[in-house]
Amino acid sequence: MEHTTFIGLDVHKASISVAVAQCLRGGEVRHLGSVPNRPDHIRKLVEKLAAAGAPLHFCYEAGPCGYGLHRQLVELGHDCIVVAPSLIPVKAGDRVKTDRRDAVMLAKLHRAGELTAVWVPDAAHEAMRDLVRARATAMRVAGKARQHLQGFLLRHSRIYPGKKGWTGAYRRWLALVRFTHPAQQIVLQDYIDAVADAEARVVLPVHCPG
After folding, report:
1. CB neighbourhood size of 21 (10 A)
2. How far apart are CA 193 and CA 189, in angstroms?
3. How far apart are CA 21 and CA 190, in angstroms?
4. Residue 184 sits in which domain range?
5. Is 209 within the bounds of a domain?
6. pLDDT digits (tens, 9 = 90+) for 123-175
7. Mean pLDDT, rounded, for 171-186
8. Is residue 21 part of a domain?
9. Which one, of 156, 15, 167, lies nearest residue 98 by Cα?
10. What is the pTM for the complete model shown?
């Protein structure tokens, strides 16, 4: 730990703010500025920091940019932790947030051992997470599409005489519903198509490589 360098990264879609803390508690903490959030620029940053020969320990907050940065840093041979924002200690009254302050704070806290790393999924786990999220979204969209269709029918007193909706019988009844005005028939068909499209997304088969 004597010569370790701790690097705090405040990560955004287009840029990464970088701060460096020397190994000793109370030692110098410098803000190095920002670099583009692109693999080639990150590689150059790492090469520059590693030139002194000290072990590098990176950290950044989990966020919408995902774990690609973590994987790149690990593949380059360096330690990196990802921290959930809710697990980062915050001083009372310290509410001013800037990219520079956040990067410096992360570097200091990492050096002090006050950050708790979260589990970082590998590429396969993240892909499955994405699939689960996509299916959950599709199910919500399908539910909303059904609600819109049923609301339209209710407003125009088209009431299904059966006991349970979205069965085969309900769908056959739905196909027979007619409106006098062509515009309303178009709207009905649009709602029916929206439900069918959303349901198709939910049951879309997934073929994973063996």
Report:
1. 25
2. 6
3. 59
4. 123-202
5. no
6. 888 888 888 888 899 999 999 999 999 999 999 999 999 989 899 999 999 99
7. 95
8. yes
9. 15
10. 0.71
